[in-house]
Specification:
homotrimer; alpha+beta; Rieske Iron-sulfur Protein; Naphthalene 1,2-dioxygenase Alpha Subunit, Chain A, domain 1; 2 domains; four-stranded antiparallel β-sheet; 6 helices; monooxygenase (chains A, B, C); Rieske_2Fe-2S (chains A, B, C); oxidoreductase (chains A, B, C)
């Protein structure tokens, strides 16, 4: 159940080699191998990493200027994906080409559009501003999961797990699990999209400061904490979180902790997932040591999630037909799954009405 | 083809952590993950190791007194399997529970009942007396197999393999393979069970003493040897074996070797198996060195079996449709497979007539 | 899509242990485990490596003279595959036997006939003369592939890949890829076989000598090079290749390089393959160092092929339904695939008309 007409992050921009670097970067998205490289003008190109001739990966071949040559029988493709040379063939057939995926780069995330290229629309890109903003600092992260991406969406849509999975790492008080978040729709960014995702707002008042916050300052009172995030199709979390002394007004001056996080999930195959993330702190609070320390905490905590979700997935594989039991804390994840399902259904219906080659293979 | 309404060994009792040990023990039986722990009063509890909410394993969570709390979203289950707390939910739904498996502990084997709990009956437990008896000494063993459990049942039901698989380890004379055992039904333990298994009695007279016996004594004559065992549903072998000087009466005084062995097979999944076993010698014959030495021989020999059955299984996977050729030595294993098949069939018919939730998932 | 009524190489003759060596050699061909051993008279026997009784591999058992005894329950088979002894059974059933595969040994290749034994015909053996000929020297090679055998046939049927896959190893000039080979049918060796394979002749004139040739001599001119090979059913390449100073007549005296190579592919399972090969040089040109050096180059180059084909196979597994795009350089491989397909189809039709036990399992 994958949405195709949307943007997926395929890489952090620093993962894509420079134009003069002979290395070729490849990553599989929605089960399709995708080659990503930079042209001499700095543009990023994403091509199907599978020669149309005998399906060898182009990434095993080589760069030739802005083109790529297959390393098996030497077909050469330009950045549009057109085969411009086939050894020993005078007139290369016009249909000799590989799919070219629309690419967008925004705040260090490199996005590819996996559906109909004509529908690619930058208005649908998420606002991952803190990934690259003078007011914010972070160290980019990446993890690979051997589980389907929806199980990780579930995890991010129910922060009650903070109290248990991250009890010792992120300092999740059981008060977090006991609180109920407000859940609202995020309206669509374009006329085509009635709803873009789910907004989850959770406020937990009068709780001890988590050890995690000591990086910024010592508090001698309890805090009011907040986690306010959007979870957007196909799988992006954009979150403001923080804490201030209990009872202080939201915009009152004085000590507080304010963070912003961007995280996104990209299905690799039906059962494996790419996870890109960062947790930003204000650039004027904390030096590189703090940035590094937050990154290390995050990796530690995200490994806790991965261990749990991997164990959950093993159980699901043992008895895949057994139903889960929805509880109150699942409201957001159920709403998100319904939204995704409706969207995928609409996409399939549209594809049947007006088939596009890139969607039918 | 698994029987459900019967006892399976899930562990040796020493494998289950003490009540004050925070570790949680889990093992998969018939494809179901099962959590096993001790309460403060020393009772052993077996619960489905899969939270009803999102299917996370409870064994990744933690003990809280006699309860277990899921480490994902914090649901807490009592030893009956009832959810007694769900963070942020005032009234926990009654149907929020995990399956509780009936447990029996007998002579250091911990049994779970995988079918309808109402049918659990300790009269059906095998008499594995030598596992824990003042007259007998042994060291408990466990092996894991990457093969279906029925192939291992087959192995235990035809001791003609001793002459070949264990020619050098257990000293199986070819006379063993040439002899024909007497095969008889073992009557059922309760009215419900017309037959509990197969009794196999094999006597091999006037053969040289196996090197294995030198641990106890040197014989200067040939021996009459015997292997008399019951092989009981679902997969338990209880065996008396031994040897005495050729021609001596069974109860004549004088030198002899008398052993008792208990072995049992528990399917983990359709293609993997747990194997629990011990070979006991009389407590008044042989010190700890002898116990250890028997254990080491047994492990060596059982690895020979595992190598053979694993190689056999590989061949079966290559051509799973090819039929085997029944020969005279297969009488016991064929009778056992028929008995099991009839029993499974009866169980399915009864389940259709009167479905039970634990059997229908 | 396997042809059965034909010869497949199962081993180099030096791989089969001597008659007095207790080791037993086994290799899987077309998904069937095959035991190969030598009798006291030096004949090579190939038997189904699966006891008819419980399917244990005979190769885990032991030699007894010219017979083999199963290591599980002791059935003994003679070189015809007949069970001549079953412990404890007076009269062994006549149908207790394992399949005996016709064997042929020619120039150090050991062939087995995987179809109807009555059809086995040595006239169908390929002429792999240089494998064992006083005028030629080589070191035999073997590689295992985790890909289907047809992908490797494809590779050998289109040498345009030399210019790219082996650009640095075998010195494949891009001129090779630009040249077009002549493709002709190889007529059948018997009345039953209208066509045995494909002949591919490629001449590339006036190209620099490849570094590979410096083992034999330094050329101070460009060369005319040739690659002339037959690719025969089910997957054998027999190739003459070489180079001489540009413009020299084929049979003119003077410096040249002349090589002969035999290579053959044997499917192990649907997705794995055995690859036997050698590249010979004239015995009177080059010493053992040259032989060894050619072998090392070949292994290096064949690993380049394997890396490429394995990467190609990974892409095919990701989207197995996606069609490839035939181009001019595929002429030979397409003709070969058609020939194989027609032959397999004919074999199936004949098998339906007159079924043979060895073909229906």
């Amino acid at each position: 159940m994958w949405l195709r007409n949307c943007w997926y992050v395929i890489a952090w921009d620093h993962e894509i080699p420079a134009a003069d670097d002979p290395k070729l970067f490849t990553r599989t998205v929605l089960g399709e191998p995708v080659l990503v490289y930079r042209t001499g003008t700095g543009d990023i190109v994403a091509l199907e990493d599978r020669c149309c001739h005998r399906h060898a990966p182009l990434s095993v071949g080589r760069r030739e200027g802005d083109c790529v040559r297959c390393g098996y029988h030497g077909l050469k493709f330009d950045p549009q994906g057109h085969c411009v040379e086939a050894p020993g063939i005078e007139i290369v057939p016009a249909k000799a080409c590989v799919h070219r995926y629309p690419v967008a780069v925004r705040n260090r995330w490199v996005f590819v559009w996996m559906g109909d290229p004509a529908k690619a629309d930058v208005a649908l890109l998420p606002d991952n501003f803190s990934c690259d903003h003078p007011d914010w600092k972070n160290r980019p992260g990446y993890l690979h999961y051997d589980t389907p991406y929806l199980l990780i969406c579930d995890n991010l849509l129910d922060f009650s797990h903070l109290s248990y999975v991250h009890e010792k790492s992120l300092g999740g008080s059981t008060r977090i699990a006991q609180s109920r978040p407000v859940i609202e729709p995020v309206p669509g960014a374009t006329a085509d999209w009635p709803q873009m995702g789910i907004r989850v707002s959770r406020h937990v008042n009068d709780v001890p400061p988590p050890p995690f916050y000591q990086r910024f300052r010592q508090f001698d009172t309890n805090l009011d904490r907040w986690f306010v995030y959007e979870f957007l199709l196909p799988g992006t979390l954009l979150m403001h979180s923080g804490g201030r002394p209990t009872g202080a007004a939201p915009d009152a001056p004085g000590p507080s902790v304010r963070l912003h996080s961007c995280q996104t999930l990209t299905p690799e195959t039906t059962h494996t997932t790419h996870y890109f993330f960062q947790q930003s702190h204000p650039a004027n609070e904390g030096d590189d040591t703090v940035t590094e320390s937050i990154y290390n905490s995050l990796i530690g905590a995200f490994n806790e999630d991965r261990d749990m979700i991997t164990a959950q997935h093993r159980n699901i594989l043992l008895s895949s037909a057994r139903p889960m039991m929805p509880l109150a804390m699942d409201a957001a994840l159920i709403q998100f799954r319904r939204l995704l399902e409706a969207r995928v259904h609409a996409e399939h219906s549209a594809a049947i009405a007006s088939p596009h080659p890139a969607l039918t293979t």
